[in-house]
Structure prediction request, 435 residues.
Amino acid sequence: MQHSEIERDSLIDRYVRNTLVGAERQSFEEHFLDCTQCLEQLEIASSLRQAIRESAVEAVAAPPVVRPRRWYVLGWVQAAAAACLVVAMATSIGFFEQMQHARRELASAQTELASARGLALSPAVYVLGQSRGGSESKQIALPRAPRWMVFSIEMDTTQFPSYHAILSDFSGKEIWQQAGIQPASPDAIGVTVPSNLLAPGSYTLIIQPSGPAGAQSTLSRFSLRFH
Amino acid sequence: MDATLLLGGVYIAGRMEIEATNPADLVRRIMAGDSAAEEELVHRYSRGVFFVLNQNVSDREIAEDLYQETFRLTLEKIRGGEVREPERFSGFILSIARNLAIEHFRKNTRARERQGEENESRTIAAPDPSQLDHLLKEERATLVHHVLAALPSERDRKVLRRFYIADDDKEEICADLGISSLHFNQILCRARERYRKAFDELSRAGGK
Prediction:
């Protein structure tokens, strides 16, 4: 095997990305086993790839700040009544104690649930970039075991202090949202979704600025197809 | 810490140069009972064999076990006169390493199936990373920070992310970012060169 051929066919990159297969892979392995030059290039490429992947996970895998999903919208009369009720109850110390207890229980249950569902496993990272094609869905394989899926979204993040992500299914029903996302870098934000929320199908992920004006301005929109 | 580990190397191999001895001579000497030839063979092939195993098996400790077993079996077969084409020795040792890796996966799959039958809803927890893994990760993070900081533009960083994290095709990245194939190769080459330099600096600092 000649070095010109290795360079021309990008064998080093294809090998470390596991896209070199069959006889070609076998023949390249036999070559580099006895070639210091290629082996060194392979080690560098493989280690750099691993380091970049690890740093991406570190950058975006911070625990998500999740805003509870809104189940329904109250009319103004019901809302006013509910507010009065809340104010009345809030005067009771017992109420606060109950709330604190409930919160602790909820946090504990969420941790246990995450652990039981395997979400403590290292997250799977996907990069979403703005491609020129635009409308094509990004095909993503759902992890076999439940785990966090981290979408590293390439966008200019210098315009707003924080962002809001909304994931909707094919019918437009909102299934997940994450508010107050701090940019991971000047050009990327990380959106973290538990895979067990997702079923195979088409979804839309939109990114808006956080805050009251956010809903009126969609900064990025991605079509995702999970399978 | 031995910086060679960062590149997926093994202790015994270090970064020694591969020697130019004909592999067929090595095989003949080993068959004649020359223990120095055995050592030479291990030094010559250890780095490559470990790299191949490490690419195929995600767990470093398992890769190390398979690596030890590969050389044990290889030497046993050479001594027993089982190498039919000594001039194609690379293929011979690789086939032993590949078969061991395949056997490992078979055993693993069977174990998972058994566990699945016992309790379908139970998930297998990933083993906790060792202290060495943590250290290697930290060192790699430092190196990659140097690499990314040294890149001249955000577009170059984007190329690296899309190529190494998203595994997008080179052609697709070039089309999306409006760069030529040559420019793409230059970006990758510069990044690797910078990473290698940072790695060499770390090796020198570690050797002091």
Remarks:
- Chain A has three domains: 3-59, 76-116, 122-226.
- The beta strands of chain A are 124-128, 138-140, 148-154, 163-169, 174-181, 188-194, 201-209, 220-226.
- Chain A touches chain B through 51 residues (CB under 8 Å).
- Residues 62-77, 111-120 of chain A have pLDDT under 50 and may be disordered.
